[in-house]
Amino acid sequence: MSTVIALIVGERCEENVVRRKLQAVCLGLLLTLLMIPIPAWAAEVLQVQTSSLLQIGDHNRTYTVRLACLEVPPPKEVEAMAWLKSELPRRRRVNLRPEGTLDGVLLAKVTPLGRDQDLGAGLIAAGLARSECDFPQA
Fold first, then answer.
1. Phi/psi-derived region of residue 100, left when phi > 0, alpha when psi is between -120 and 50, beta in every other case
2. Residue 18: enclosing H or E segment and its boundaries?
3. Are 52 and 67 a contacting pair, CB within 8 Å?
4. pTM, full prediction
5. How far out from the chain centre does Cα 91 lie?
6. 58-86-135 Cα angle (round to 5)
7. E strand or H helix at 106
């Protein structure tokens, strides 16, 4: 009888050891998965409408976004729009940093993913626009 009890207790100990090893492996896999970077669902450029107005989508909505703190002089409109189109092909992913709203249009700094400079600063650096902030801040 004591041999049977010892076998049962031994089997339970082995089961516990196996269960703990399995738990440790599962925990290790979970921690590894949590450390893997997950790609961000960034907004995408759908259309360049004017030299400072973009149509942006984020997989379930579209937004009209005006580049914040930017004024493009009328003689440079065409050149500025061409510059924006060259920088923003369709479906280019961008980060938006909202600065406010004006007449229902989102005013934001727009930066293409993988770049450090936002588009407004790029237009200013290219001599196609000037910096001007005359809207209420968000």
1. left
2. helix 2-35
3. yes
4. 0.65
5. 13
6. 60
7. strand 105-112
Q: What is the largest CA-CA distance in the chain?
A: 101
Residue-wise pLDDT for 42-95, tens only, equals 789 999 999 999 999 987 889 899 999 999 999 999 999 999 999 998 889 999
> pLDDT tens digit string along 95-118?
999 999 988 899 999 999 988 899
Contacts of 69 (CB under 8 A, 6+ apart): 99, 109, 120, 131, 132, 133
Length of the chain, please?
Answer: 138
Residue whose pair of structure tokens reads 């229902």 in the numeric block: 104
Fold observed for domain 43-125: OB fold (Dihydrolipoamide Acetyltransferase, E2P) (2.40.50)
User: Residue 6 and residue 101: Cα distance in Å, rounded?
Assistant: 76
Please tell me the distance from the alpha carbon of residue 41 to that of residue 38, in angstroms, as a whole number: 9
**Residues 6 or more apart whose Cβ sits within 8 Å of residue 75:** none
Domain residue ranges in the chain? 1-38, 43-125
pLDDT at position 91 is 86
CA separation for the pair 103, 113 (Å, rounded): 27
**CA angle 126-62-113, nearest 5°?**
45
